[in-house]
Write a structure and sequence with these properties.
The structure is a homodimer of 537-residue chains.
Chain A: E1 2-3, E2 5-8, H1 24-37, E3 41-43, H2 51-60, E4 69-75, H3 87-94, E5 99-105, H4 108-114, H5 119-135, E6 139-145, H6 147-153, H7 155-168, E7 172-177, H8 184-197, E8 202-206, H9 213-222, E9 227-230, H10 244-254, E10 257-258, H11 262-265, H12 268-279, E11 296-297, H13 300-308, E12 326-327, H14 335-345, H15 354-368, H16 377-388, E13 396-405, E14 414-422, E15 425-433, H17 436-449, E16 459-467, E17 478-485, E18 490-497, H18 500-536
Parallel strand pairs in A: 1-10, 2-3, 2-9, 3-4, 4-5, 5-6, 6-7, 7-8, 8-9, 11-12
Antiparallel strand pairs in A: 13-14, 14-15, 16-17, 17-18
Helix pairs in contact in A: 1-2, 5-7, 6-7, 8-9, 9-10, 15-16, 16-18, 17-18
């Protein structure tokens, strides 16, 4: 298997994406994660332009990386400045990494119009800077900025920029489509020419402004590039960088190239989610391979096909990248797939059971109100049981008030008062919280824990709010989705209302009811097992 | 300019995307919009599998389409059923559209394993069904499902499927990469072969499971396909369909092909946003051409370059697709770009003014708390003025309480009581609302309108909630962003807190303060103008 080197720049180019901002602590966590995952290079910052990056390079020395080489990024020296006196060069050296990535201009327009120097001096800047770092014993990656645009504008000059880097002793020539405007066929042709002309190994750095960064990277590798630069989840300036979470499985699963260890590949979806948490951006659900929908089937015929043979509508088995298959419900899903989900809750029902129609009608009416049971399996389960009259009432809420005042103080700015009844016994409790939902959650738990101490095991994992009818502004409907766990299981519940407190309340109580029900089933099973064990002794 | 036909399937394949669901009224609006935009075909539904689609086909007859041909989608007849007795075929005919798209199997595996008939009978099904609709006078598009996978598995059979469609009289042969697993170079090669072998024009239908649906469509067109199928914003099953909002500008701006009228192209960003509203999915901000970040610059060197010449870091001028340039602020943005934004508010400040450092410190501390001023220009403006002490206090909130109870009733489930002071006068008001934020908004306006009747002109456009620290679940921080308008201007404001009510409150009051300030400036300007006019008379 031919090796293709993965050069991750999430911490450098990725951090240029809108809304992406990593603390030094985040950056250290990410470095560790990328190293464990098995990328070859971690480009971690630009010490010359960002003081926070310098602090990171100090801290990161304490980490022992097993797979990746740490890389610092910076520009060539400025025009008409001696290389050893250039501030950026000095900062880059101070970062003290085994690898440096030096970017230089290869588009004549940028040389004369943006950095405003002569074409000749720019070549000197490239040659000098690369040579300087080679003398210091570094592995030097030369990033030819705007290489593809440069080649179209002045092919001889663009090639001369690469020659200058080679004369300086560069270990890598990376061709950058900085503005993301190049098409796959052009990338393939140009990479092929460069690979033929130079002995130094070639890399590709693509941006997604034409929606083709992944394809451009693939075409470059097929044309002879042996290093791919990109970011986790495609974070990056404007439309983002080439997405490594798509490129890695594309090449490793479909072109039999080796990018990361196979054991890492099945951690890919986890990696993508971990990064989206740290970057504080929700992961695009449509994302190839790793998105929540990547293997979600909604059309009736598709679901039917996948039930017969998963290869019918899946290009790879989702397990290979640590993702999983989901069957969605909708008006196009067809009765059979909804029936299948209903039967998971109530196995005694058949296609002909009249109750099935009742459940479908109830689901349809809730969907009309804005509910979506994709990702809210807990609530789905409860709807089925409630419609069947098969849910015992664990508790009843008799009264409930939430009060929020403008005495904002950290920790306590809202109060909830709740009165519940369990098995004929009433209990009234109050609790303060960070906000109305938090106060409500605390009060409800406090009241119910007296009756169901097992609730101590359960906690909320995630709380999401989505406005689903924005044209109404503050009077719009909101959909609240909650994810809860008891340490083993994870389940989702949902609530919809024009009132965020009501929507949260519905999702919260569903979550608790679902837990109590599942807990009771587990207990019943344990008792059965115990009885069986006793009989066996 | 060579014409490439745009075949939109947002209403059919797009509606198979997770969370996408259109009402009949939505579908009619979308049809009108697509027709105005200038696509050539609107594939609007599958009348055989979805009863809601049938209702739509009835209603749509009342619309007069100017550009697009309405298309209904359905499968070939079933095995061993006469074509005129097949239910799907009958439904398709009943839809009464000028064009029908018939999909049939071209992958031998699907024939024998999924629909479970003989290879021979499947070819009959294709031939018969196409011929039936040709006899009825329809334009027939044959969608060869899984064509690329089929060709790899059994090339002769896949080609025979196309032959059968041609024998039936198909007007178009569309090659579908249904599972989205095919690579651009393979698409190009296969399309070239088919175009050479058949006289019937060829189309391409790609899915995005390898992140290359756009590239595959482009490669197919460059290889001779003259019809591109896709959806607005790439909505569709699993990872989505090929995104027309990327393909259209790619081909029209960069390959000099004609897909839609040029006047439509500069409405592209508006189209994308309109569809995301109707689909109730927020538009991916990274989306090429139409995303909110597509022309947003964050890196200091990039901003510097763009200020010198926009072509330095933009592959096209954003106006061509109706989008716009944005300069973002961040630690990598560099002082100069933040200074530029500060100077827009306070033009008298220079780089050296000590106030600039105060403002930067204040912004940094707010960003640390979770604020993001990208998209919240109103709040940014107020932060600058407040730090400078240059904001007159339009009102003061003395006291404020919100109460929510479990008497959920549509329209009124929360109450807010607010006490304000304006110019020494106090006013207390209460209002009910759909939820706490709505009640608060109403009470505040009611109180302030007495003093500032111009507030009647202002209204909220959008209200967004984002949980920014999900690991804390209900005690997490939320970021509320509000967009407001006075009918001419649109401005954004922001609030961050662990308490959703407080966060909303901050964004709401900022929005009102910003409006009052701008209104006062306008009035001053009008007075100046009037004085000048009087002097001139």
């Amino acid at each position: 298997m031919r090796k293709i080197y993965v050069f991750d720049t999430t911490l450098r180019d990725g951090a240029q994406g809108e809304g992406v901002s990593f603390t030094v602590a985040d950056k250290l966590k990410i470095t560790k994660k990328l190293d464990e995952f098995g990328v070859d290079f971690i480009e971690a910052g630009n010490p010359g332009s960002n003081p926070k990056d310098m602090a990171y390079f100090e801290e990161v020395k304490k980490l022992r990386l097993r797979n990746a080489k740490l890389t610092a990024f910076g520009s060539t020296r400025r025009a008409n400045v001696a290389v050893e006196e250039d501030q950026n060069v000095t900062a880059l050296l101070k970062a003290d990494t085994p690898v440096v990535a030096i970017f230089g201009k290869s588009w004549d327009f940028h040389v004369t119009q943006i950095i405003r120097t002569t074409l000749e001096e720019n070549l000197n800047m490239i040659r000098d800077t690369v040579a300087f770092f080679k003398e210091k014993g570094k592995e030097v990656v030369f990033d030819a900025e705007h290489f593809f645009d440069g080649l179209k504008s002045n092919p001889i000059y663009a090639m001369n920029a690469l020659h200058a880097a080679c004369e300086g002793g560069a270990d890598w020539l990376v061709l950058c489509d900085t503005n993301g405007g190049t098409f796959p066929a052009d990338v393939a042709g140009i990479v092929k020419t460069v690979v033929k002309r130079f002995d130094v190994p070639v890399g590709i750095h693509s941006h997604n402004d034409c929606g083709m960064a992944v394809a451009n990277s693939i075409m470059a590798v097929m044309a002879g590039a042996v290093q791919v630069q990109g970011t986790v989840n495609g974070y990056g300036e404007r439309c983002g960088n080439a997405n490594l979470c798509t490129i890695i499985p594309n090449l490793q699963l479909k072109k039999q190239l080796r990018l990361v260890p196979d054991s890492s590949l099945c951690e890919l979806a986890t990696l993508a989610r971990y990064f989206s948490e740290l970057a504080n951006k929700s992961l695009n659900e449509y994302e190839p391979y790793v998105g929540n929908n990547a293997f979600a089937h909604k059309g009736g015929m598709h679901i039917d096909g996948v039930l017969k043979n998963t290869a019918s509508f899946e290009h790879i088995p989702p397990e290979l990248v640590g993702n999983s298959r989901r069957m969605l419900m909708s008006e196009v899903a067809g009765r059979s797939s909804i029936l299948k989900r209903i039967q998971e809750v109530a196995p005694w029902l058949s296609k002909e059971s009249p109750e099935v129609q009742d459940i479908m009608n109830r689901l349809k009416s809730l969907e009309h109100d804005g509910y979506q049971f994709e990702g809210a399996e807990g609530s789905f389960d409860l709807v089925v049981r409630r419609t069947l009259g098969k849910l015992r009432q664990f508790f009843q809420v008799l009264d409930f008030t939430v009060l929020a005042e403008n005495q904002w103080k950290e920790g306590n700015s809202a109060t909830a008062v709740i009165k519940v009844e369990v098995n004929g016994e009433q209990e009234i409790t109050a609790a303060e919280g960070d906000g109305p939902v938090n106060a409500m959650d605390r009060a409800l738990r406090r009241a119910l824990e007296l009756f169901y101490p097992q609730l101590l095991k359960m906690r909320l994992l995630d709380y999401k709010v989505r406005v689903i009818d924005t044209q109404q502004a503050t009077a719009a409907k909101v959909r609240v989705q909650i994810e809860s766990t008891d340490g083993e299981r994870v389940w989702g519940t949902i609530g919809v209302s024009t009132n965020i407190i009501e929507a949260s309340w519905v999702a919260l109580t569903d979550s608790i009811e679902y837990f109590l029900m599942e807990y009771e089933k587990d207990m019943a099973l344990t008792k059965e097992n115990e009885a069986w064990m006793e009989g066996a002794v």
